[in-house]
Amino acid sequence: MAYIISEEAKDLLEDVKEFCENEVKEQCKEYDVSGEWPKEIYDKAIEMQLHSLEVPEEYGGPGLDRVSVAALIEQMAIADAGFATTISASGLGMKPVLIAGSEELKKKACNLIVDGGFGAFCLTEPMAGSDAGAGKTTAVKDGDSYVLNGRKCFITNGAVASFYCVTAMTDKSQGTKGISMFFVEAGTPGLSTGNHENKMGIRTSNTCDVVFEDCRIPAENLIGQEGKGFKIAMQTLDQARTWMGCVATGIAQRGINEAIAYGKERIQFGKPIIKNQALQFKIADMEIKTETARQMVAHALTKMDMGLPYAKESAIAKCYASDIAMEVSSEAIQMFGGYGYSREYPVEKLLRDAKIFQIFEGTNEIQRIVIANNVIGR
């Protein structure tokens, strides 16, 4: 893995690799079939504090730079993309608070995670996907409280989160400038979750509706200022997209690993199929694309750590990595031949897992709009 990381991070990477080999990779196969959320696997990950990698050091986190965290997240994705998505989506849920929340909310969110919880980010609604500004969830100020009503959908970690960062309209007449962001703790009266979505891939992650019915929260749970919620959400996604590129890169790397291992074992015409130049060229192209994706992820995260603009780079990382995850997974299946199409072998799952990365946290069509706007100017 060609991330340049510290010796300390390399040691942690070995620990994560061992954990994923022993506790995640094979165990997740049965959960991919059942669609159940593997609580016991996540409990073990929490014991290692793998769920809190993005918590800043001042709030109890490990204090790793983002590229080091990416190396760890990719290693999780190589084992199982749903597992890595759950871990990364918890960081996504925390980002609005870290971007614009009060010191009290930052401490509260980070403490909930360090103590073994997960976060969730609630933006998407049934009629507001790519057009996030079309959301209908409302938040009405009532004394020293806000009362939330509405429904969010496709929320990763929805049924297992300890807290939610939620966008809601505080002034419908203002469009996107009337959207605010709120911190809502699990267990708040009026907050409920729907059924776990029966998904095509990343089946070891939880995805469900989150519903607010006269859900009353303290006014101090407003993140930032009224009317700034859409901006905070977009800043959140600008960061989060790179992490989805990271997970997608892990899917692609798993495809390469599986294709090479099978290519060395499968004998046709008296020799391993990997000896055929046509398949060696496939591996070369898979490696070119995967390493390029990895370095785009590293570049975007480095710019974040340096405090430089990164919106374009993050969009490129997510868009490119998810596109090549689909391509590399498909080529891995091709190298397995008929066996690649069978669920008895590991590569068909990679294609199912990869597809969502072209869709969530901004479709790749939206990413291309972001990239074009950054290059051309509005």
UniProtKB/TrEMBL annotation:
Every copy of the Acyl-CoA dehydrogenase/oxidase C-terminal domain together lies at 227-375
PROSITE patterns per UniProt = ACYL_COA_DH_1 (PS00072), ACYL_COA_DH_2 (PS00073)
One Gene Ontology MF term = acyl-CoA dehydrogenase activity
Q: Provide the cofactor list for this protein.
A: FAD
Q: Which parts of the sequence belong to the Acyl-CoA dehydrogenase/oxidase N-terminal domain?
A: 6-116
Q: Which residues form the Acyl-CoA oxidase/dehydrogenase middle domain?
A: 120-215
The source's superkingdom equals Bacteria
Q: Which Pfam families does UniProt cross-reference here?
A: Acyl-CoA_dh_1, Acyl-CoA_dh_M, Acyl-CoA_dh_N
The family note in this entry says: Belongs to the acyl-CoA dehydrogenase family.
Name of protein: Butyryl-CoA dehydrogenase
